[in-house]
Prior knowledge:
- The longest helix is centred in the N-terminal third of the chain and has 11 residues, at 26-36.
- The chain is 6% helix and 57% strand.
- It is mainly beta.
- A hairpin with a 5-residue loop joins strand 20 and strand 21.
- The strands form 3 sheets. The chain has a 26-stranded antiparallel β-barrel. It has a 6-stranded antiparallel β-barrel with strand order 6-7-10-11-9-8. The protein has a two-stranded antiparallel sheet with strand order 33-34.
Amino acid sequence: MLPRPRSCLALAALFAASVCAPSADAQGDTSLRLLMSRELAPPGPPTDAAGRRVAPGAGAEAATVFLRADRLEGTSSRVEASGRVELRTRRETVLADWLAYDLATEEVHGKGNVTLRQGNDWVTGSELRFRRDAETGFFEDPRFSVGESGARGDADRLTFVGPDRYDIFKARMTTCVAPREDWFLSGETIEIDTEKKIGVAHYARLDFMGLPLLYSPWVEFPLSDERKSGFLTPIIGQSGTRGFDVAVPYYFNLAPNYDATLTPRIMTKRGFQLGGQFRYLFDEPQPIQGEAYAEVLPGDSQTDSTRWLYSWRHNQQLTPWLAGYFSLNRVSDDDYFADLAERVAVTSQSSLVQEGGLSATWGPLAVLARVQRFQTLQDENAPILPPYDRLPQVLATLSPIHWQGFSLAGIGEYARFRRDGVDDGSRAFVYPQLEWRRQTPGAFFAARASVHARQYGDLPQPAADGDASPSVVVPIGSLDAGLVFEREFRAFGTDFIQTLEPRAFYVYAPFREQSSLPVYDTALDDFSFDQLFAENRYVGNDRIGDANELTLAVTSRLLDPRTGAERLRVLLGQRLYFDGQEVTLPGEVPRSGSSSDILVGAEGRLTDAWLVYGLVQQNLDTGTTERLNVGARWNPEPGKVLAGTWRYTRQVGSVVYPNELKQFDIAAQWPLTPQWTFLGRWNYSLVQSKTLEALAGIEYNADCWVLRAVVHRLTTTSDQGTTAVYVQLELTGLARLGTNPLDLLRRSVPGFLRSNDPARQSRGTGIDPYPEF
C-alpha cells in the first residue's frame, strides 16, 4: 500500500550513521569495505511497462491488499474504513482508527493512531497522507522503533518529498529504554535521499545526561555501509611520554578501490604530528594491492629533532605465474616506537625490514628473488647484534612430488650477505629430500633421506685451511614410526575416548667440520616437542648438527565421543644420544649427557569453563628444572574470566635476563555488580623486580551507554616505561567517543568480552513492537 516501508524508517537509520560520517570503528570497517567494494553491484530497481519503479516482488501477489475494519463503505473510486482498521500486504501492515483510499489519485489517508510495521520495525503517528503515484505526502507526529538495534525516536513531522526523498523535522533518537533519556541525538531538519544513500542534517546535536557533547550546524552522512568522506571519531588520550594526546582523522573516499586518511595529532609533551594513509586495490590488468603510511613530527619538544616514520607495502601480480612485491619500513631514530607508540607489538620491535622481490611459480616449483635490508633499533642498555642484509637472495622451493608412496621435495638458495655496509661473503646451498611413507588408521612409518650441501664464497677471512670458498656436504637419514590405540574411558562422570600414541624418531647425520664457517642466519632451536622430531637442532643453514639419536615420545588424548573434539592432550618425550656432540655455534657449550632433558606437557579444555596448559623441562642428570610454564583460565560464562600464567626458565642467556626468567602474568574480567565490571592484568618479572606491563580499568554498563576507563603501564625499554590513560564513552547503537581501549583489552585479558556484547545481553526497546497487531 505504501512505497518501500523501510524507507519510511529511514528516520531510524539516519541517526545510526549521523555522528560525523563513520563511527569510531570506521577505520577498521573501511578496510573490509575496500575489499568488498569490488563485488558486483545489485541491479537497479525494477520498472513497469510505463517505466515507473515498482516494488521488489511486484505482481499479483505483491499487489494483493487485505483490508479489515469495523465498518467499510465506498464507491468504485474511493474506499473508507473506520474502527480498528487493519490493512495488510505481503510486506507490511498498517493500522489506523480511520483510513481512506482514493483509487483515482492513488492517495492513502489515515487518521488516529496510524501505525506502519514491517518485521520488528514500526512507525506510528496521528495522521498519514500519501500519494502513491508522486510519492508525496506526510506523516504527522511520527514515533519509531527499530527492533534489530533497539533504537527508538520521534519527530514533529515526516514529509515525503518525492521518490526516495524525505524531510524530517525536529527529530530525536536514542537506544535508551523508555522512559530513560540518558542521551539523545537530535536534528532540526534532516533531508534523506535513499536513492543516493545520503542524508543531510541541519543543526545536529548529541546530548548526554543533559549536557551537549557534539554539535554541528550542518553534517552529511551515508545511509548505508558504503564508505563516505568525513571526519572519523576523534581519538583522545593521556600518557606519560606524550602528555595529553588528541588525533582527529579525516577519511577521503576517493574511489571504490582506493581511499586515504589524514590524521592531525597534537601531543602536549611532543608537539604537532601529521600522519597519512593511502590504500589501493586494482584487478586489471593483474591484481594489485597496497598500503602506504607516513607520519612526521617536526621539532619534537623533548628531543628537539624532527621525527618521522614511513611504511609502504605493495603486492602485484605481473603475469599468471609471476608476482612482485616490496615492503619499505623505516623510522627516524631508535627510540621512535618507545616514545610515540602505545602497543607492545609495536614498542618491542627491534628490526624494520626494507625489501623487494619477485616470486615465480611453475607447478610444484616456486622461486623467490629479493633484496633485503634491516634497520636495527638499539636499546643502549641492551644492545643486540644486527641481522645480515641479503643483497640479493634467490630461494627455490620444490613442493612434494608424490609417486608410488615416495615423495621428492627440496630447497635451494643463493644469498650475498652484508652488515653495516661491509660485504661479508656469499652462501649457496641445496637440500633435496626423498621420503617413503606408509600410513594406516592405527599406525604410520616414514623413511627419509636427504643431503644438505653448501658452499661459501668471497669470505673476508678464509677458513682454517686457507680456503676462501669452503664447502661442506652432510647426508641425513631419518626413520619415523608411530602407533595409535583407542579405548573408551570414563572420568569425572563423563564418557571419553582415550588414545595412546607412542612414537619413535631416529635421525643420523655424520660429523662434518664446520667450526670455521661463518654464521649468517643460524641459531640454536628452542627445545620443544616439535624440535624433538626435527632432523637439525639448529634453525638456519650455516650449521647441520651431527646426530645419532633416538626420540621416544607418547601422547594421550581425551576425545569427546559425540563430536570428536579434543578435551585434553598429555605429551611425554625425551631424546637419547648415542654419540657426543661435535658441531657447535660460536659460544655454544656441547652437551655432555647421553640423553636430553625430558619434556612433559599438557593442555586442554577440561570443561566448558576450565582451560589448562603446562610444560615442564626437567634435567634428569642434575635434577634441576630447566623450564616450567603453567597456566589456567576459568571462564564460567561470557564476560567472566580469571587467567594466570607462571613462566620460569633457568638459563635464558640474554642481556636483559642474564641468568634466568621468572614471571607471573595474571588477568581478569569480573562483574562486580550488574553495571560495574573490573578489568585488570599484571605481568611482573621477579628477576628484574619490575612490572613489565600492568592494566587496571572499569567498565560501567548503563544499558544504552557504556563507559570504559583504563590505565595502562608498559615497559618500553630496559630503563624506560610509559603510562597511558584510556577513557571511552560508547553510546549503544550509535558511536564510540574517546580513546579506544578495546584492542588493548582483547590482547591483555584472554576471553575479554564487552559488557554490551550481544553474546552477553539481550535487551528490549521498552516499547511494545507489536501494538495491537
